[in-house]
UniProtKB/TrEMBL annotation:
<dbReference type="Pfam" id="PF04427">
    <property type="entry name" value="Brix"/>
</dbReference>
<feature type="compositionally biased region" description="Basic and acidic residues">
    <location>
        <begin position="1"/>
        <end position="12"/>
    </location>
</feature>
<feature type="region of interest" description="Disordered">
    <location>
        <begin position="388"/>
        <end position="441"/>
    </location>
</feature>
<feature type="compositionally biased region" description="Basic and acidic residues">
    <location>
        <begin position="406"/>
        <end position="429"/>
    </location>
</feature>
<dbReference type="GO" id="GO:0006364">
    <property type="term" value="P:rRNA processing"/>
</dbReference>
<dbReference type="InterPro" id="IPR007109">
    <property type="entry name" value="Brix"/>
</dbReference>
<dbReference type="GO" id="GO:0000027">
    <property type="term" value="P:ribosomal large subunit assembly"/>
</dbReference>
<feature type="domain" description="Brix">
    <location>
        <begin position="54"/>
        <end position="323"/>
    </location>
</feature>
<protein>
    <recommendedName>
        <fullName>Brix domain-containing protein</fullName>
    </recommendedName>
</protein>
<feature type="region of interest" description="Disordered">
    <location>
        <begin position="1"/>
        <end position="27"/>
    </location>
</feature>
<feature type="compositionally biased region" description="Low complexity">
    <location>
        <begin position="391"/>
        <end position="400"/>
    </location>
</feature>
<dbReference type="GO" id="GO:0019843">
    <property type="term" value="F:rRNA binding"/>
</dbReference>
<dbReference type="InterPro" id="IPR045112">
    <property type="entry name" value="PPAN-like"/>
</dbReference>
<dbReference type="GO" id="GO:0030687">
    <property type="term" value="C:preribosome, large subunit precursor"/>
</dbReference>
Length: 441
């Protein structure tokens, strides 16, 4: 009896354990499902936000040199991550191909580099209604040229994961309305930033676009943004940042007799690291705690140029994509009569283009009809050959009557289908004619 009771207790404990295990497995499965649903929802939100952001293509057209191709790649790094970094173009591709295919992929802007014997031009286009801005590139420097002059270049691999902060300077001249259009155009090439909700740690780069009124030129500079704690000398920074990463170790203090020699020795500071009087900024968010850049602390903002550099001269602004009215031209001025003639010419050109598109569409439809008719004729001929072969075989085997009966049945089925089709067409026509017509306003 005692043994039986012990067995019963063991069985009860085992059953309780199985029930608890089943309940735990069910809870784990439910938690996994919930976490999976949350991840999918977050992924959908990110995809929607990414689809709303502007995307830009950077290409070249025509024959260009190796330096212009390098400039094309450098401009793609500026537009990252919302660009096609490894886009390959073919000689047979034209601008219209990129416009048609880019609109399907969510592309909103395009930059086109073209070179001639006289100059290098950069065109900025807005899909799909325009406008088109044409710049003459007076001077440019590649990324490698900018970095080669720096004593301590910084790594830029992690900087391209977020879009740069765009800073416009000198475009608020009320007498020059075309500058306002240029400012709005360039700002809309990059994602907008909400000042109230933006995370300061994501602002790793900035693009400064300045207008020089004396030279009538636009300067573009691309910088990496670094925030460093203010009031710290180089020796102090080494001690504060020691052990924060694998490359930052404690400094060697064996050559100093006293710790004060380490801090007070002026030879420890290099010219590039010396900190004089700089404007200090109080941070509202934590940026880098390992460097002492936390909320409420005083910090200095430093800019390290990473390239490329561009000095541009605005030549013209045009409606549409290379086919509209010229809104601004630096070297040509039109009288009102000439503008009216140009508008009439542009309207006529658009009508001709529309008519040609319609003709091409009709031509394609006509060709498709001819192909369909030829296919039906070939199928009918093939069917006749098969029927002839079947009759010949039936006559040889003595089954001609059965074959004729089957053919009669097929003809009756085809006639019935044709009658039903005609009857349905008549019913549809009668319903359309009997429906009340809508009055025109």
């Amino acid at each position: 009896m005692i043994i039986d009771r012990k067995k019963e207790e063991r069985l009860q404990q085992k059953n309780r354990g199985n029930v608890d295990a089943d309940n735990g497995d069910a809870l784990d499965m439910q938690e996994r499902r919930m976490s999976k649903m949350k991840k999918e929802a977050e992924r959908e939100i990110k995809e929607r936000e990414l689809a709303r952001q502007p995307h830009c293509l950077v290409i070249h057209r025509g024959t260009v040199g190796k330096y212009v191709k390098s400039l094309e790649l450098d401009l793609r790094t500026v537009m990252e991550p919302n660009t096609a970094k490894s886009l390959k173009t073919l000689k047979r591709n034209n601008v219209k191909d990129f416009i048609v295919n880019g609109a399907v992929l969510g592309v909103t802007n395009m930059m086109v580099l073209t070179s001639s014997e006289a100059s290098l031009q950069l065109r900025m286009m807005r899909f799909s209604q325009g406008p088109t801005l044409t710049f003459k590139v007076n001077q440019y420097s590649l990324n490698r040229d900018v970095v080669s002059f720096q004593k301590r270049p910084i790594a830029t691999d992690n900087l391209m994961k977020k879009s740069p902060l765009v800073i416009m300077n000198g475009f608020n001249d009320g007498s020059k309305k075309h500058l306002k259009l240029v400012q709005t155009f360039i700002q809309n090439m990059f994602p907008s930033i909400n000042v109230d909700t933006v995370s300061l740690s994501t602002l790793k780069r900035c693009l400064i676009v300045s207008y020089d009124a004396e030279k009538d030129e636009v300067d573009m500079r691309h910088y990496a943004v670094r925030v460093v704690a203010s009031g710290l000398t180089k020796p102090t920074k080494k001690l504060v940042q020691a052990g924060k990463s694998a490359t930052k170790e404690l400094p060697d203090l064996s050559k100093f007799k006293d710790i004060s020699d380490y801090f007070l020795n002026p030879g420890q500071l290099s010219d590039s690291e010396f900190e004089g009087e700089q404007q200090e900024v109080e941070l509202s968010q934590d940026i880098n705690q390992s460097r002492g850049c936390t909320a409420g602390d005083k910090s200095n903002i430093r800019l390290h140029e990473i390239g490329p550099r561009l000095t541009l001269e605005l030549v013209k602004i045009q409606e549409g994509i290379d086919d509209g009215e010229v809104l601004y031209h630096k070297f040509q001025e039109k009288t009102p009569e000439q503008l009216l003639k140009l508008r009439a010419h542009i309207d006529k050109k658009r009508q001709i283009k529309k008519r040609k598109e319609q003709e091409n569409e009709h031509r394609v439809i006509h060709r498709l009809k001819i192909v369909q008719e030829n296919r039906e004729r070939e199928e009918a001929e093939l069917k006749a050959i098969r029927e002839k072969a079947a009759r010949t075989q039936a006559a040889a085997t003595g089954q001609a009557e059965e074959v004729e009966n089957e053919r009669e049945k097929d003809r009756e089925i085809a006639l019935n289908r044709e009658r039903d089709h005609k009857r349905k067409l008549k019913e549809e026509q009668s319903t359309d004619s009997g429906a009340p017509k809508r009055k025109k306003k």
